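Milestone 3.1: sequence recovery, worked example.
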C-alpha cells in the first residue's frame, strides 16, 4: 500500500460508524479514502451519509437473491469493483459465506457491540444487562468465516449503570465505537496493524492480547 488506503464500507442501516470514519477522514485525522459504500438494504440513512460526503454507493438488495451464495457473489463483485485495500463492516447485518470472506484475508474488519468472545450474535446489550454484567463494550476484529469469531484487535469498555436500559446501553456503546473504529482503521492505514499467518502484528510485534483503549 504505497498510496492512500482505499476503503470500502459495508452497511445495512443508520451508518453512524460510517459517519465517524467520514468525519475523521474529513478532519484530516484518518489517512484513508473511502472509495465506496455498499448496502444490502435500499434507502437506509447510511447511504444518504455517503452521498452527502460524495462517496460512491451501491445497493445489493439481499431480498432479490435466491441464495446466500448468489448474493455474496454479487457483493464480492461490488467490493472488488472499488479495488480496496481494506473492507470495513460497519453495522453490516448479513452472515458472509466462506467464499466471500476468503477473498479478503487480513483485509476485512468488523465492529461488534460486545466484549468478544462474550456475546457474539444479536441483542448483546440486552443479554449483558439480563446477566447482571457490570461492563459491556465493543470489539474490532479481523473477519474470518466464524461469525464474530475472528482475531480480536482492540476493545473499549463501558460501565453498566444500575438503572441501565437496553437503549441507553446501545447509545453508550455507539459513542465509544465512534472512537474505536477510526483508531483501528488508522492503524491499518498506517500499516501498523497486520494479520499474517494467523497472527496479529502491531508495530511489527505479535499482539499478545487485545489492545484496550
Ligand atoms: C454498531 O453497534 C456495530 O457494533 C454493530 O452494528 C451497529 C451499527 O451501527 N455491528 P451504525 O449503523 O454504525 O449506526
Amino acid at each position: 500500500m504505497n498510496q492512500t488506503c482505499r476503503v470500502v464500507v459495508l452497511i445495512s442501516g443508520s451508518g453512524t460508524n460510517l459517519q465517524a470514519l467520514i468525519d475523521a477522514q474529513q478532519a484530516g485525522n484518518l489517512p484513508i479514502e473511502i472509495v465506496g459504500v455498499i448496502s444490502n438494504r435500499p434507502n437506509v440513512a447510511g447511504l444518504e451519509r455517503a452521498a452527502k460526503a460524495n462517496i460512491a454507493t451501491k445497493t445489493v438488495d439481499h431480498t432479490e437473491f435466491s441464495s446466500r451464495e448468489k448474493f455474496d457473489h454479487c457483493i464480492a463483485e461490488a467490493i472488488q469493483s472499488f479495488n480496496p485495500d481494506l473492507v470495513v463492516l460497519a453495522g453490516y447485518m448479513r452472515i458472509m459465506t466462506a467464499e466471500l470472506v476468503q477473498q479478503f484475508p487480513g483485509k476485512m474488519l468488523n465492529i461488534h457491540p460486545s466484549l468478544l468472545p462474550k456475546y457474539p450474535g444479536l441483542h448483546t446489550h440486552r443479554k449483558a444487562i439480563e446477566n447482571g454484567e457490570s461492563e459491556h463494550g465493543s470489539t474490532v476484529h479481523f473477519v474470518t468465516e466464524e461469525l464474530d469469531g475472528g482475531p480480536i484487535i482492540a476493545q473499549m469498555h463501558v460501565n453498566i449503570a444500575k438503572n441501565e436500559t437496553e437503549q441507553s446501553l446501545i447509545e453508550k456503546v455507539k459513542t465509544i465505537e465512534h472512537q474505536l473504529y477510526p483508531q483501528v482503521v488508522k492503524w491499518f492505514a498506517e500499516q501498523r496493524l497486520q494479520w499474517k499467518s494467523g497472527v496479529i502484528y502491531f508495530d511489527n510485534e505479535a499482539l499478545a492480547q487485545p489492545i484496550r483503549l
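The pocket of 5-O-phosphono-beta-D-ribofuranosylamine is lined by residues 11, 13-17, 46, 90-91, 111-113, 138, 174, 177 (CB under 6 Å). The first helix runs from residue 16 to 26.
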